[in-house]
Backbone:
DNA sequence: CTGTTAGCGCCTTCAG
DNA sequence: CTGAAGGCGCTAACAG
């Protein structure tokens, strides 16, 4: 294969051990415990490395050091704006710390998720960041129990006490709903949400609290649970509009559901004539998640913007910390630690992160 | 660490070599050359593996076999619908073949791209799939020359003769423009496009050919090159609208630019009153790329839909083929092979892939 | 059919 | 400050 440390040693007229030491000086992680090397030999070795174009073999190093400087990241799906913003945040953070991200998708299946985390463990990743596919986390906890550093993002799970970074979901829908109330709406529905997912539950709860605070007792039919995808939003919206006295406003559990709802509205007012106003009273939507597309969603009035990239870098920093702690032998802090990042409510009539103003 | 092959060997009362052979039977890649093992011992070993919860260590195996069963994927950015659809396609294909995807972002920088491909090489990935960040590919070719299997996606580059899978870009804008012509538009602009990127060049070319066919000589100011991002579309559109006699229709080089253009239109007609028609003659847009958001873009009339997931799985299959060929010693076919997938023109007035009809 | 024996490329005591 | 030697976990001849 490529040139090895032996080639370099030969070229520089030293032993492989010396080359290894020279290398150690250049790694942030090992620089402190690096043994001294005479400046003269160091230079000689460096020159040889240059000349031969030597590059370390991480596989070999990993086998020896039991550390691959890679962290596994498992997300429910890739084609999702929110997840990918999180991924960007993670990758940048990891990269700046000398770690590599290995990204895998669990295809929204808890079974696949299990396979993926084990597969990553087989590849000896030093740690793992996961957005759980479901609500149960025994398999995650199980792997963590073997000593694998792990941090969750976005969703919390039952059956596991793991570190996590997520948003203040409850507060998000609380403020979203309150904004709608302030605008004079009274008949406000909540659409979408897999009630097994913690984030969805929290969002429903915030909605409920805002209504309670306003002394409004929501009609049970206003709460249209089920699903986190585009089709789910579409279906729920359709059902809502068929009602005799439909809600005037609604809170969407996430961007996908929100999209489906808007799609439904579009179809309702006769396809093709998108510019033309219909006779129907147009409901107003306040949705979780903000993206560059929200300014184009006609019914959208408010969005709760999560700092996805920020969540990612937070998670990245956290996992690297845990890995370092583990390496340095400290058995680390006690129990789980959950970081909740605040969300920003955006009046998207004026744009949003991509052009609007915050409240 | 975890249990090793030695533990299993001891537990089953056999040698490590035998365990290794039993393992080989279960890998698709090695099953054929796997040496026979007596059914009785095989069962005994399997039982031991179960009992101990043994899992192979890919790092160790990789060091020995010079193959990690991982392929590196380098994309210009992660938070991009088109790229992520491609990634999904790649991952599924790789996974079904027993390979793991390692995804990295080049942050739209050719320098970063270079770092990333070498870093992946250091990790001994068996092959690489990249969407180039720029127009030059010496560094890619350089790595390929060392024997690293490589396939490009979406964009071709100068300075390299590599396999690639891309779309029929020229045909896409050709048909897009022709559809606009058929609708009676004559003053048609082309917006966006980093002329250094092959895909952008090809798209411009298709536009030109359609106009030529119709005997139209485009005003030079209709061709607004520069940039592939949202802001670029915004700026170009603004400039266009300021002209005395602006075009009635435009072709957008990609979804990002398209978005920026729509954004600009939105801002033009006085913010806040999105439902209300303006006095201004509304231009019509035909854009490359289709997504679940295009139905919401008011000016969008046609889109050229690329089969992003399909491109991904094609690329995945291709890279696995190349890897296998390399492993089996065959020095492979001659020169570069470029696969061009057809695009579908969608009348997005009626929805698109996410609800519309193809032409 | 199975065991023994060498390493893959690197790091790391332990001597010098 | 540097070299020699052993081994991380696994596979692949080569014997038996």
Residues:
């Amino acid at each position: 294969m490529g040139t090895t440390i032996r080639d370099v040693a030969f070229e520089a007229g030293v032993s492989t051990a010396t080359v290894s030491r020279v290398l150690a000086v250049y790694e942030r992680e090992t620089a402190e415990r690096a043994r001294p090397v005479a400046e003269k030999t160091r230079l000689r070795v460096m020159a040889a490395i240059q000349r031969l174009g030597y590059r370390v073999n991480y596989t070999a190093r990993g086998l020896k050091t039991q550390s691959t400087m890679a962290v596994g990241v498992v997300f429910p799906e890739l084609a999702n704006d929110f997840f990918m913003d999180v991924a960007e945040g993670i990758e940048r953070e990891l990269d700046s710390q000398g770690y590599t991200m290995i990204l895998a998708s669990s295809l929204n299946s808890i079974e696949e998720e299990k396979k993926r985390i084990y597969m990553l463990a087989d590849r000896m990743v030093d740690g793992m960041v996961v957005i759980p596919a479901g609500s149960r986390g025994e398999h995650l906890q199980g792997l963590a129990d073997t000593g694998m550093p792990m941090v969750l993002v976005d969703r919390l799970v039952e059956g596991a006490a793991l570190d996590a970074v997520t948003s203040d979901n409850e507060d998000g829908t609380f403020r979203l709903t309150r904004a709608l109330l302030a605008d004079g709406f009274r008949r406000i529905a909540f659409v979408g949400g897999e009630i097994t997912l913690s984030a969805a539950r929290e969002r429903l709860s915030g909605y409920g609290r805002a209504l309670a605070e306003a002394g409004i007792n929501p009609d049970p039919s206003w709460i249209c649970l089920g699903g986190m995808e585009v089709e789910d939003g579409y279906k729920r919206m359709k059902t809502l509009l068929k009602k005799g006295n439909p809600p005037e406003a609604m809170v969407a559990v996430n961007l996908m559901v929100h999209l489906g709802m808007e799609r439904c509205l579009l179809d309702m007012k006769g396809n093709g004539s998108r510019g033309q106003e219909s006779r129907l009273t147009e409901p107003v939507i306040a949705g979780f998640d903000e993206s560059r597309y929200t300014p184009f969603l006609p019914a959208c009035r408010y969005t709760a913007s999560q700092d996805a990239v920020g969540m990612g870098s937070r998670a990245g920093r956290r996992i690297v910390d845990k890995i370092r702690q583990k390496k340095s032998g400290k058995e680390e802090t006690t129990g789980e630690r959950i970081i909740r990042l605040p969300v920003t409510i955006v009046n998207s009539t004026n744009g949003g992160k991509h052009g609007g103003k915050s409240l």
